[in-house]
Amino acid sequence: MDVETSWRVIEQERLSLADLLSNLTDGQWNTPSLCDGWRVRDVAAHVAMTPQPPALTTVAAELVRARGSLVNATRDMAVRYAEQPGVDLVAEIREHAASRRLPKVTNYRNIVLDILVHGQDIAIPLGIHREMPKDAVLAGIERAWRIGWLLGVNRAVKRFRYTATDVDWTAGEGPEVAGPAAALLLLLTGRVVALPQLSGPGVAGLSGALRR
């Protein structure tokens, strides 16, 4: 997707996620998400924070506290943000839906990936179907394939050949793993919940790699 299309998708996904969140009960807000150690509330806080990035000095301090782990530092910042008294995450997501402001360490391609996957991190544990635009999913898969190491995904995931069954996309070498593009997007970002939607001779080995 080009830059303008990407930003339109980001805005639409933020707004639709705000609509989803606005109808949740207190119990649903505290439901564990697909992200290990994150509640639905924490994922929503991360989405709300993205167009309101902290200063680099704050990020550096968080990285030190998290012993250099970007994944852990990101989670810790989201958890603290979610617990702020009086914070209205739905209102913040809506207010900044069209914002193109970015943390200095990322780019719009990563934000497309981020909003798509985090929308599923929230929706799937709540039993809510959340459709994703096919062109955006394809862009997300391409990005996830390139930066999986940065997302903390087991490098063994790259030892398989992936084929999307509903869009024209394939990557990698090794035993084949096939499935819908949306499932591959979740898989390539480390979400084991996608495994039942996949088929092929590589699925058993991939399952072991992901769970490690």
Distance between the termini: 33 Å
Count of domains:
2
Overall strand count: 3
What sequence of helices (H) and strands (E) makes up the elements?
Answer: HHHHHHHHEEEHH
Report the radius of gyration as a whole number of Å.
17 Å
Determine the strand fraction and express it as a percent band. Answer: under 5%
Q: How would a crystallographer describe the biggest sheet?
A: 3 strands, mixed
Question: In what order do the strands lie side by side in the largest sheet?
Answer: 2-1-3
Unreliably modeled segments: none
Q: Can you count the helices?
A: 10
The average pLDDT score comes to 90
Shape: globular
Please bin the fraction of helical residues: 40-55%
Structural category is mainly alpha
Plain-language structure description:
There is one protein chain. The chain has helices spanning 3-22, 26-29, 40-49, 56-65, 70-82, 89-95, 108-123, 134-147, 181-187, 203-211, and strands at 161-164, 170-171, 176-179. With 212 residues, the protein is mainly alpha-helical. It has two domains: 3-126, no CATH class; 137-211. Strands 2-1-3 form a three-stranded mixed sheet. Strand 1 and strand 2 form a beta hairpin. The longest helix is centred in the first third of the chain and has 20 residues, at 3-22.
